[in-house]
Amino acid sequence: MRCLTCKDERVIWTKDKWGSPTAVPCPQCNKNGKTVREEMNLLEREAEGE
């Protein structure tokens, strides 16, 4: 599944009030970091199995 908002990068680059680029979590696929934690746990389990 591909997120149309962030293209599966889990962050969106926006500009702050001074015009500097800032990374913010994707509101569609990374609410409170849940998706990233799940993916990291999956990667860790796969790494232990090898």
Write the layout of secondary structure elements.
Elements lengths: L10 E5 L5 E5 L8 H16 L1
Give a structural overview.
- This protein is of the alpha+beta class.
- It is built from 1 helix and 2 strands.
- A two-stranded antiparallel ribbon has the order 1-2.
- β1 (11-15) and β2 form a beta hairpin.
- The longest helix is centred in the C-terminal third of the chain and has 16 residues, at 34-49.
- It starts with 10 loop residues before the first strand and ends with a helix.
End-to-end span in angstroms? Answer: 26 Å
Would you report the number of β strands? 2
**Assembly annotation:** single chain
Write the element-wise H/E pattern from the N-terminal end onward: EEH
- Helix/strand/pairing category: alpha+beta
The helix tally amounts to 1
Share of residues in helices: 25-40%
State the gist of this model.
The protein is an alpha+beta fold and 50 residues long.
Keywords:
50 residues; alpha+beta; two-stranded antiparallel ribbon
